[in-house]
């Protein structure tokens, strides 16, 4: 049988490729973004109790009402912004499913979707599968700031959606209040939907604040916010996230959600709902990860790599032009095979594979792992 691929240019993701290379060569894996330490035993116990209590059948399609209520309480407490749990919050199988479902529900053939590169790799394939046209805005190392005049020039009558991500993966940068206000001004009086990927909202450093789309009233009216419990509570394998949006947008989202997922792991939802009753479980996350960032940067201070401290996420970008002129993909593979340390090259997320000679390292690791990785980097 012969079939034309709907994604002919798409192969195995760089995360899968680098993790496989790390496994083959027994390298430390600071490439894929997952913690190598355990989730809170209390959360594990709450999910286990939910299983024992009988929460083992389908959850409601939109998610457990207890969990949706806990999410609504969080937005009210943190952002003074309200989402109705009945109609404006849906629990999803991770943020990636939420993103795919949002794009599937709204993007039609020839619709244009603006994405900021380096972009997380699930955005463009989802757009392409719906017949949409990805429109790139390339951010430049080392600061990855947005030129809003370029963005405004790329908005056309065919622009259906703008996808934003802050704190930003892979660069570790943070959008400012002025960035969000400019986005609000550009989309004012249009039919453009904003998809705000905020999975690292609780990992922001140096006293800065996360500028959620829900903080800006006119922006909120046109925005989906996607979030991830896996990133927040160190359990990426559970694949539980959620999205928030105004009722009219969420109605369209749920039409698709009910057929591609229907509902999400029920005992995990019950456990998470109970766990969220103690806000410190997510409010202390910035301090926890800033300590790890600072440790990692202090340990590599004597290396030949250059770093601008990450502003958020649990990723640190390192520039290596003092070491080699190799392109970043080749150097990442060399680092894994020869030096036994895996990282992610950023060119794979850029327009036309733009190579800024930078690699992304995940510091969501035990201190012992970070010390071992830093010793390798300092020896190069």
Summarize the structure.
The chain is an alpha/beta fold.
Provide structural commentary:
- With 380 residues, this protein is an alpha/beta fold.
- It folds into 2 domains: 14-32 and 284-378, Aspartate Aminotransferase, domain 1 (Alpha-Beta Complex); 41-279, Type I PLP-dependent aspartate aminotransferase-like (Major domain) (Aspartate Aminotransferase, domain 2, 3-Layer(aba) Sandwich).
- The chain contains 15 helices and 13 strands.
- The strands form 3 sheets. The chain has a 7-stranded mixed sheet, with helices on both faces. It has a 4-stranded antiparallel sheet with strand order 9-10-13-12. A two-stranded parallel sheet has the order 1-11.
- Strand 5 (159-165), helix 7 (177-187) and strand 6 (193-197) form a beta-alpha-beta unit.
- Helix 2 (41-52) crosses helix 11 (266-275).
- The longest helix is centred in the first third of the chain and has 15 residues, at 65-79.
- The radius of gyration is 21 Å and the shape is globular.
- The model has no long low-confidence stretch (mean pLDDT 97).
């Amino acid at each position: 049988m012969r079939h034309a691929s709907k994604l002919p240019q798409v192969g195995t993701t760089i995360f899968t490729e680098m993790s496989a290379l790390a496994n083959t060569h027994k390298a430390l894996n600071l490439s894929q973004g997952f913690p190598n330490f355990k989730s809170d035993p209390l959360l594990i116990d709450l999910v286990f109790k939910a299983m024992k209590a009988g929460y083992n059948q389908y959850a409601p399609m939109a998610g457990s009402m207890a969990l949706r209520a806990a999410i609504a309480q969080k937005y009210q407490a943190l952002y003074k912004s309200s989402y109705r749990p009945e109609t404006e919050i849906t629990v999803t199988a991770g943020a990636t499913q939420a993103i795919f479902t949002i794009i599937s529900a709204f993007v039609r053939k020839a619709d244009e979707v603006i994405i900021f590169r380096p972009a997380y790799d699930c955005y463009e394939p989802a757009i392409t599968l719906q017949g949409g046209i990805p429109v790139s805005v390339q951010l430049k190392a080392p600061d990855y700031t947005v030129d809003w005049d370029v963005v405004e020039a790329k908005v056309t009558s065919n622009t259906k959606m703008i996808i934003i991500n802050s704190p930003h993966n892979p660069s570790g940068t943070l959008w400012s209040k002025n960035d969000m206000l400019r986005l609000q001004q550009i989309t004012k009086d249009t039919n453009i939907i904003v998809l705000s990927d905020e999975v690292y909202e609780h990992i922001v450093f140096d006293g800065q604040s996360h500028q959620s789309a829900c903080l800006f009233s006119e922006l909120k009216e046109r925005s989906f916010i996607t979030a991830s419990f896996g990133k927040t509570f160190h359990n990426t394998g559970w694949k539980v996230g959620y999205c928030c949006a105004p009722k009219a947008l969420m109605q369209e989202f749920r039409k698709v959600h009910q057929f591609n997922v229907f509902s999400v792991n029920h005992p995990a939802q019950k456990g998470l709902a109970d766990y969220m009753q103690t806000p410190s479980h997510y409010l202390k996350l910035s301090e926890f990860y800033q300590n790890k960032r600072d440790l990692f940067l202090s340990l590599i201070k004597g290396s030949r790599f250059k770093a601008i401290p990450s502003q958020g996420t649990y990723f640190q970008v390192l520039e290596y032009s003092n070491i080699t002129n190799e392109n970043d993909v080749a150097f990442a593979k060399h680092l894994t095979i020869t030096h036994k340390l895996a990282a992610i090259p950023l060119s794979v997320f850029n327009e036309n594979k733009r190579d800024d000679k930078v690699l992304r390292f995940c510091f969501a690791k035990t201190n012992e792992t970070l010390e071992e990785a830093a010793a390798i980097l300092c020896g190069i």
